[in-house]
Task: structure prediction
Amino acid sequence: AQSVSQHNHHVILSEAASLELGCNYSYGGTVNLFWYVQYPGQHLQLLLKYFSGDPLVKGIKGFEAEFIKSKFSFNLRKPSVQWSDTAEYFCAVNARGSGGGADGLTFGKGTHLIIQP
Amino acid sequence: NAGVMQNPRHLVRRRGQEARLRCSPMKGHSHVYWYRQLPEEGLKFMVYLQKENIIDESGMPKERFSAEFPKEGPSILRIQQVVRGDSAAYFCASSGLANTGELFFGEGSRLTVL
Result:
């Protein structure tokens, strides 16, 4: 079964700082990768996804993530954060063709990001 | 185009009572997933359903929990004889295609057991 590890549970940054949130997964096969964001009091929304092709994917609100297959990583980045980026960020993996297991997503525990004005 | 609709948003139950959480998927989606989120935890997969079928319930506790997605009407997650440990946010998600992992989430139902 696949698992997802997010390195930082709490991150505090000042506005305009650069952001990188780590995500590693364990699964030997082909995966689809996702970052979801949950703003305070709201539901999860998709930030970006990787299925195949260019390993550098761009999402909404200036976020991007890079899939590094050799490192089993899918780190989320943003060059300059804003106060409105304060939220919980979840990395998730769907193992394609894993068969028998959940057809849904396996989530990391999340990173709580606080942006100070 | 309405998103995934969950109700109730908040539910309070006493120990031993039953909790029923409802989820209507996005229009055109036939795959429904239930996840549970505990404080300081990520989302834990519970069950995956298609219309009238449970496809994967490997994340469901063996007792007291059940789920259905009837031909007509919303998907229902049912928790019998609730205990304090059942207090959590329960999220429903839907997708139009299986096995891609791209899910659309509802706003969640927060269950509090007194």
